UniProtKB/TrEMBL annotation:
Gene3D superfamilies: Ankyrin repeat-containing domain (1.25.40.20). GO terms for cellular component: membrane. SUPFAM superfamilies: Ankyrin repeat (SSF48403). It comes from Rhamnella rubrinervis. The lineage of its organism: Eukaryota, Viridiplantae, Streptophyta, Embryophyta, Tracheophyta. This is PGG domain-containing protein. PANTHER family: CASKIN, PGG DOMAIN-CONTAINING PROTEIN. The chain crosses the membrane at residues 577-597, 617-637, 649-674. Residues 529-641 form the PGG domain.
Length: 689
């Protein structure tokens, strides 16, 4: 008997993997016990495998067999992870399969897997809005709230926001408003989770170029937010009709293939005999038609690419709008007690919390302790522990200006919040290089002395943490020298924005300047090595151009008049171009060589990276590029005087080939030149009204 069961398992598994579901149905119809077999290593049954393979027709047939045999308990079979067929259908996002299963056994909506997740929870976890709406309509409010949380304390509102399914998260808030106050085992509320998603807000998208930013701001407008309605859920009968329709179309297409003479797919084509009567086009006509078709195809592809580009930006803007709406709902329903400084506003750092019975936090902590005494793992509707940092601190750490501004508008006392390390908003913004947030704090005059004088548990002020270099917090520009330059700019910007009270030493008796020097030693060494290598390679090219330019400027094409000593070709316009361009190439190549040599002999002190070294490198490379162009112009104009009018146009390709090697070098170094311009002239740290 056991051998037969193992044989059936292997047979069912083989047929299912080959997609031969008709044979699978025949085996199950012969013996309904085959539906109890776990045919995969994960412990999945035939029905569960059919669900994961999206075999809607097979699932319907198996469900009909279960109902016919009154074997409803087969629907409650779970795999090794505790997933039922409804769990898998909800994860797949199939409304049709979910409705078919839930109508047979509605209690399956509340069944949990080993992680404590119900099918309703999995629908939210995977962002299946339509399935979530349907399953939610099948359960009561009490069952919905009880299904909203899994073992680790996360609710499906936490998961929807974490997965950035913002439209679904907004609907969950409307249907389950009490989940706004829910927290997981770490004490994180849905607002905490939202504060960890900088890409869901406009302020967190730093990779937008100017063109994308222009399209985002001026070319796309979202007047109304859209989300699926419960009335739009697909009806299972409609699903049956679609399956029947697709099956009939498939049969029809197969018949057409077998009987091509009865096929109506190409009825608009002329019979074979008429093709000889068509007028024959000339090769020129074919060329014109082909050209127009190519232009049309190219235009169509460009239009499709543009539409795809705009649609991508529209989806991003839609997500940002949803995030703003969710943020408003979460903050509107949040208690002010969630934004009290753990050390208490305007109190000493070591002063404990006021243990007031009216304080919701204390009540919640006591409730959690009672739950733990009972040996239960607190699936509380609110919270089991208090988070080590409030939502505004999480948002400040991630640079989400929208959340910080909204919380400060409703709860001004939130400016006093500090995390477990006693870091407030100003310290977190300075530490994580959140330039936009720091400038907003300056604009709103929030850098008051009472806020700025706060220090963390190591005695570090905002200026101390701004002085620390961290490899995981680099600036969006390549090159160690550029990184060092921006580090200096950031430190000076923070220093100029804070009162002198921030300059005092920390607990280790280190000033911000000392911490800056200590933590940037490696970066200074890397920047110096990079500058030396760059200057050496560029100085070689500069010396080569200077030598060629000197020889060229000292020679006169065509010779001179013996009587007067004047050039014979001085009346030609090309001669004037030659004389001026050769002089420019000589002067600028020497200038660039001088700049590169001055870099090579520099002391490479950390302050030299602020303006001196990047400025010299920029001047040197600018002179180098101009001298390269002047040398090419000098060569072309001088050679054209020698050839005169005999090969006036034929020599142009020769000039292009001759200029190609040095032009490749210029093009290869051009991105570096653009970065140098950005670092030297783009002042992104200075706040402007």
């Amino acid at each position: 008997m056991a051998a037969d069961m193992m044989k059936d398992e292997k047979t069912l598994f083989t047929l299912a993997m080959k997609g031969e579901w008709k044979e699978v149905l025949e085996i199950c119809e012969q013996d309904v016990r085959a539906l109890k077999l776990k045919i995969t290593k994960s412990g999945a049954t035939v029905l569960q495998v059919a669900v994961t393979e999206s075999q809607v027709y097979t699932v319907r047939a198996l469900l009909a067999l279960i109902v016919e045999k009154s074997e409803h308990e087969l629907l409650r079979l779970q795999n090794n992870g505790g997933y039922t067929a409804l769990h898998l259908a909800a994860s797949m996002g199939s409304v049709v399969m979910c409705r078919c299963i839930a109508e047979i056994d509605p209690a399956l909506v509340g069944v949990r897997n080993k992680s404590g997740e119900t099918p309703l929870f999995l629908a939210a976890l995977h962002g299946k809005s339509t399935v979530f709406l349907y399953l939610n309509s099948r359960c009561s409010t009490e069952l919905g709230y009880s299904s909203s949380r899994r073992k680790d304390g996360d609710t499906f509102l936490h998961c929807a926001i974490a997965g950035e399914y913002m439209g679904l998260a907004y609907q969950i808030i409307e249907k389950y408003p009490n989940l706004v106050h829910s927290v997981n085992e770490k004490g994180y509320s849905p607002l905490h989770v939202l504060a960890t998603k900088p890409a869901s807000f406009k302020s967190g998208n730093h990779d937008f170029g100017r063109f994308r930013r222009f399209v985002y701001d001026h070319c796309i407008s979202i007047n109304q937010l859209e989300f699926p309605d419960e009335k739009d859920i697909v009806d299972p009968d409609q699903g049956t009709d679609e399956i029947t329709k697709s099956k009939s179309q498939k049969e029809k297409s197969s018949k057409d293939i077998e009987n091509p003479e009865t096929s109506t797919e190409h009825d608009d084509m002329p019979p074979p005999g008429r093709q000889q009567l068509q007028p024959k086009r000339s090769m020129f006509c074919d060329f014109i038609v082909l050209s127009f078709m190519s232009m049309f195809t190219l235009g169509t592809k460009c239009t499709m690419m543009l539409n795809s580009f705009i649609e991508d930006i529209r989806e991003v803007k839609m997500k940002h709008r949803w995030s703003i709406e969710i943020m408003k709902e979460l903050i509107e329903k949040t208690s002010i007690y969630d934004y009290v400084d753990p050390a208490g506003p305007n109190k000493n750092q070591d002063e404990p919390l006021d243990k007031d019975e009216d304080n919701p936090k204390e009540v919640i902590i006591k409730a959690a302790e009672e739950e733990e005494k009972k040996g239960q793992k607190g699936l509380l509707t609110t919270r089991g522990t208090v988070a080590s940092e409030t939502a505004i601190l999480v948002a400040a750490k991630n640079g989400i200006i929208e959340i910080v501004g909204a919380i400060l508008t409703k709860f001004p006392v939130a400016i006093n919040d500090r995390d477990a390390s006693k870091k407030n908003i100003v310290i977190l913004a300075a530490e994580n290089r959140r330039v936009s947030l720091f400038n907003v704090l300056i604009k709103k005059n929030l850098l008051r002395e009472s806020i700025v004088r706060k220090r963390d548990d190591q005695g570090n002020s905002a200026l101390h943490v701004a002085a620390v270099y961290a490899k995981d917090k680099v600036w969006p520009i390549p090159g160690a020298a550029a990184q060092m330059q921006w580090e200096i700019k950031w430190f000076e910007h923070v220093k100029s924005s804070l009162p002198r009270i921030s300059f005092r030493p920390n607990n280790e008796e280190k000033t911000p300047e000392e911490m800056f020097t200590e933590t940037h030693e490696e970066l200074v060494t890397q920047g110096a090595d990079w500058l030396v290598k760059t200057s050496e390679s560029c100085s070689v090219v500069s010396a080569l151009i200077a030598g060629v330019a000197f020889a060229t400027s000292a020679s006169i094409p065509g010779g001179v008049e013996e009587s007067t000593g004047k050039p014979k070709l001085e009346k030609h316009a090309a001669f004037e171009v030659f004389a001026i361009s050769s002089l420019i190439a000589l002067c600028l190549s020497i200038t660039s060589l001088t700049m590169f040599l001055s870099i090579l002999t520099s002391r490479f002190q950390e302050r030299d990276f602020a303006k001196d070294l990047p400025g010299k490198l920029l001047v040197g490379m600018t002179s180098l590029f101009i001298s390269i162009g002047a040398m090419l112009v000098s060569f072309s104009s001088g050679h054209s005087l020698v050839t005169e009018d005999r090969f006036r146009y034929a020599v142009f390709p020769v000039y292009a080939v001759a200029c190609l090697p040095i032009s490749i070098f210029a093009v290869a170094q051009f991105p570096l030149y653009v970065d140098l311009i950005r670092t030297n002239f783009k002042s992104r740290f200075a706040y402007q009204e």
